[in-house]
Amino acid sequence: MHTFLLLLIIxxxxxxxxxxxxxxxxxxxxxxxxxxxxxxGICGIFGIITGQDFYLNVAIAWALLSxxxxxxxxKYLEGRGFDE
Amino acid sequence: xxxGVAVYILISMGVTFDLVGAIGLxxxxxxxxxxxxxxxxxxxxxxxxxxxxxxxxxxSAMGIKALLAAIFVLWTSPTGSxxxxxxxxxxxxxxxxxxxxxxxxEDTGR
Amino acid sequence: METLKRRLLDMLIxxxxxxxxxxxxxxxxxxxxxxxxALFALVLSRLLPPHVERLFSPVxxxxxxxxxxxxxxxxxxANFDVMYRVLHPNLPIRPGIVKVKTTLKSDEAKAFLxxxxxxxxxxxxxxxxxxxxxVHWINVHESLEDTEAITRDIAGxxxxxxxxxxx
Lengths: 84, 110, 167
Description:
Chain A is an all-alpha fold. Chain A has helices at about 1-20, 25-50, 55-80. Chain B is built from 4 helices and no strands.
């Protein structure tokens, strides 16, 4: 299990590379969105390792917030208000 | 852990897909192609990891929460990438130079 | 009367979700969940789309199950497709944005079609304008002006099931 955790954290850092180097703002937004989904998987593996279910609460909350953040970033990229 | 083999298969497949998605995010040439790799691979990868959690913990608080999280990720992740692609196109990010056609630009002029 | 039924249905859905997430049946939690569900059902204006009565039709649920099965097949295929393209040394891609005409009518059906297209091999929905879907395709292999063939390739495999679920 710890190997899987390590591999996922490496994947997260690969996404961070795109966030740091992305030539355009949408590239960075894609990287942030991808990290948000991957962290949900990391929370699931933490849940298996420790056997405690509150990590899954973290996962659900993280998925919700990351989705809202992605929508906000997309609206910001469109350059319009949030109420359309 | 009663059905350990299924758990290991599901989680290793999920982690593999997640890593492929991350590599695609680095290798592919423009935003839209990167979104393709990131959305498909990372969504299914994370859903498979969460299904592995379901297989490991069964009919308990953890299993139900993992199942709900998996459904939620499968539902919202395509929506988010759809919004990001539209935002990127409206923000004026060009397609990769090897692209063959752009009907959206022809029709909307954005 | 109709709105009352809808509110009660909203409340029921939120309450069941609460019970699943807390996963305990002690009295305090259940009472708090019922009160909160009633509150949210009052505050949220429209949780469910119109035509709620379709939620109780077994035929539609059967076709929804069929859709999920075919979608699962295509999603797994999509992942191996992306894996091949990403790990191949010289990136075999030929991207472009094509447009696809859908025959589905309701908004929910179009939304689910867009999500399904995004999860299938090499396609990513960018926008929906009226009946036209704009789709980014990672490997355009049909002739560019042949909208019929493009539509059949991208949307045809889901419209059959989605039409029976939503329209």
